[in-house]
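Whiteboard transcription, Tuesday session. T.W. wrote the structure tokens on the left side:
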């Protein structure tokens, strides 16, 4: 399984400064979740695309990871540490976040069969897939839906499509757009992973500090009172323009 971390700040900052006290403990999680890492970050207001940096080694001890955290100035970012599903190669094409235009997407969990969404994905998008993961298919389904729906509905509907067609452990994910960072929480508490790792493993939590909003998987310090649990099958929206936070049922 993987680990997710998202941040939105009031003004562009080096990522290490934006993440603050979470920088070291999140990096340490890569000693277990060590099958690559990725960062997608918006450098500030205006158009364009998020900057993307990826590696296929463990983030812990990877100079490129450290360089990206120190040298990337951003006001919104998604970070991902990968633990590859059995049988899926550790290659750049399978490394999150997946990106397209002004979108970046990262997933924590798995569903099976991995191609269960293929008939619901625009054929042109499916043909251009860069890797072989179920997670990228999740993103391609979201992209297909975004042609007619807003990000909140697209995430919820794509997850519902998976639940109707596949077995899964977790559908937790982050979607970064030009306007906002979105987080979706969903898990199967009866999956083998949930039973083995415990009820907190797939929790997504978020906190607002005034000048930043964070959303993170379990494994980093999340003291009670400062962090709120994102309820299952709900979408957290964090606006980039004013740090407005809303949870959509």
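and on the right, the sequence the group agreed on:
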């Amino acid at each position: 399984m993987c680990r997710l971390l998202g941040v939105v700040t009031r003004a562009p900052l080096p990522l290490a400064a934006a993440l603050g006290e979470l920088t070291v403990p999140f990096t340490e999680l890569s000693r277990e979740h060590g099958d690559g890492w990725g960062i997608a970050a918006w450098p500030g207001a205006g158009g364009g695309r998020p900057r993307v940096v990826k590696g296929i080694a463990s983030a812990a001890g990877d100079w490129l990871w450290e360089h990206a955290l120190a040298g990337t100035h951003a006001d919104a970012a998604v970070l991902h540490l990968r633990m590859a599903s059995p049988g899926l190669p550790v290659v750049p094409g399978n490394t999150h976040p997946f990106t397209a235009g002004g979108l970046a997407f990262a997933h924590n969990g798995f569903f099976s069969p991995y191609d269960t969404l293929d008939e619901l994905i625009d054929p042109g998008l499916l043909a251009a897939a860069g890797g072989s993961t179920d997670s990228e298919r999740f993103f391609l389904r979201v992209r297909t839906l975004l042609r007619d729906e807003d990000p909140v509905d697209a995430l919820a509907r794509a997850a519902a499509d998976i639940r109707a067609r596949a077995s899964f452990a977790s559908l937790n994910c982050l979607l970064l757009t030009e306007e906002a960072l979105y987080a979706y929480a969903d898990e199967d508490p009866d999956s083998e992973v949930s039973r083995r790792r415990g009820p907190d493993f797939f929790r997504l939590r978020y906190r607002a500090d005034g000048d930043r909003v964070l959303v993170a998987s379990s494994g980093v310090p999340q003291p009670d009172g400062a962090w709120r649990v994102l309820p299952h099958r709900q979408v957290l929206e964090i606006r980039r323009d004013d740090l407005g936070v809303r949870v959509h049922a």
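Someone added at the bottom: The chain has a mean pLDDT of 94.
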